[in-house]
Amino acid sequence: MEFKSKGTVKGDVDKEKRRLSLSPSAQAVINSYLKMKIGNKIIACPYFINRQGAKAALRVFLGKASSQEIKEEIEMIAQQKEIDLNQMSEEEIYQLLKSKRLGIDCSGLVVHILKAEYQERKNINILRRIYITAPWKNPWRYFISRFRPIENISVRVLAHPYNSRIVKNPEKIQAGDLIIYQSLKHVLLIEEIKLNQEKTIKEIKIIHAQRMSPEEEGARVKRITYSFSELKKKIEQGEIILRRLKF
Amino acid sequence: MDFLYQNLLTTILFFIIFSSLIAFVLAPLIIHLLYKLKIQRKMELDPSLQANQKRVKKAGTPIMGGLLIIITILIVTLLFNFEQKFTYVPIGVMGLSALLGGIDDLLNVFGQKRKIRSLKLTLKLIRCHRNKFYRLWLIVTIPWIIFRNTFLILSSHPTRGVLPHEKIILQLITGLITAWWIVFKLGNQWLYIWVPFNGEIYLGYWMIPVVVFTVMFFANAVNISDGLDGLSGGVLLSAFGGLAIISFLQNNAHFAILNATAIGALIAYIYFNIKPARFQMGDIGSLSMGALFAVTALAQNRLLIIPFFGFIFIVEIFSVILQIIWRHLLGKRLFKMAPLHHHLECLGWSEEKIVMRFWIINLFMMFFGLWMAMP
């Protein structure tokens, strides 16, 4: 699927340079999560998933909120508990966010970014277009999802054939494509594709809310880079699958 | 006491001063009693204290300070103004609401934490409990369990006190008593509703749900607004002030005296309730005064003036309703915290600023309502 941009949009497919990246508003959303200014410190938003299955709570406590909502919530908590965020280190702020169940999960991050992307590029509100469930299958869930779509969009929903299709040829991937684990437990978003001199894909910049912490950083929003060969290897091993939204 | 009724304005002023003096005499006794019985806000039992460090200083403040207002009104009314046609039911409704509020306050301080079985657990028990009669009983009581859990979800803090669904039922009973009195005992003229600038509209028996709703709504509105030192007391003062002026204009001596008594009692209450509060109203005061205000306004046929006289209460309760809707339906906050006075606190307004401004706004709206109520 080619992005049909309306007018000139920075970050669009530049046929001469063949560099593909997300639109500025999507980049702004990514930066808002990667560089959250809390107090006088800048930290990456922690990862949080609603494992306990809490329902009907504020979405900020379900791992589905925007970065602004997370910031406002922690500032309010700090005000109530008389905590001075300016006196805390980045790690302490990160632990405070985690202890208060504030963070973003993988699908929530992807949805917020894609929402901005599609709004800018195509003037589409993907929250109204994404298929979550049919009204005759689960009327209550359908009703709820009309008002709270983001909370009801999981990796499984993103991977649904109604919402996305498989990108069979890895050579054709674009910024905004989804990398979904076969287990449907995790999703990553392609932020930018870098080409080499032969105009083939050299490396891919990916953004995701990291589940596990291989180092000691802790689970949080992270930007990683894969080489194209690494990506192809994972696809061939059946570990991941590439999908693209149908809108 | 006939000579007192000959000049209504003098009578009103007399009862304001008289009830105020009685309340000032009773206040130290009531404060001492509340401290002695340890009916105080406790840090470990009060979620609103635990939620906000700034409110920690309020731990230890006696609650049930509304007793001062209720006892004063009861004494003065029973001695001078206990008239079957006019003041029986307002006082009765006030007493019933005070009883409900008092039980709630006492259970909050001394009671055990009460658990409600969830609907999910009930459905599980229906599927797997070994006693088939118990399973049948659970099936029959499912509507009651849904009703109970709905109100629990809508309430902001699970409490030790009277549970939300119990409060609603008791308030419904109070509302029905008021409706019975207004519709069946006061006469046909009370089936009309006065509309500003437009005369009267005949409601007939529709008056019953209107009365029930108004009493329940206002009792809860005052209860919700009672969150800052002096807030609900000051707003009630201007509200009852407006009703006193209306009753004076209507030449209705009994309600004029009742309203004047409430004003006098509130003056003394506010004296001890402004920051730093010596006591707080508690549910005993807020539910009873809210109900009394609603009943008195209804009995004076000024239902549509209530939103003006009690403007701040309306704003506060709607801020809570909207916050609940936003939270459950959209998953976001509309206000930083509900009710509105907490939102303003989160924005950095001082407690005194919020209280004073709310008093002034309500006073203005009271005058506006009076202007609308002028014949």
Q: Top keywords for this entry?
A:
heterodimer, A: 247 residues, alpha+beta, two-stranded antiparallel ribbon, 8 helices, globular, B: 375 residues, mainly alpha, 2 domains, 2% strand
Topology, please?
The complex is a heterodimer of chains A (247) and B (375).
Chain A: E1 20-21, H1 24-34, E2 36-38, E3 41-43, H2 67-81, H3 90-99, H4 106-122, H5 126-129, H6 139-147, H7 155-158, E4 164-166, E5 178-181, E6 187-195, E7 201-209, E8 221-227, H8 228-236, E9 240-245
Antiparallel strand pairs in A: 1-6, 2-3, 4-9, 5-6, 5-9, 6-7, 7-8
Chain B: H1 2-6, H2 8-36, H3 47-51, H4 66-80, H5 88-110, H6 119-128, H7 132-140, H8 142-154, H9 164-185, E1 192-195, E2 199-202, H10 207-225, H11 231-249, H12 253-273, H13 282-299, H14 306-309, H15 311-330, H16 340-346, H17 351-373
Antiparallel strand pairs in B: 1-2
Helix pairs in contact in B: 2-4, 2-12, 4-5, 4-12, 4-13, 5-9, 5-13, 6-7, 9-10, 10-13, 10-15, 11-12, 11-13, 11-17
Structural class given helices, strands, pairing of chain A?
alpha+beta
Question: Largest sheet of chain B, if any?
Answer: 2 strands, antiparallel
Number of domains of chain B: 2
Unreliable spans of chain A: 1-18
Classify the oligomer: heterodimer
How many β strands of chain B by DSSP? 2
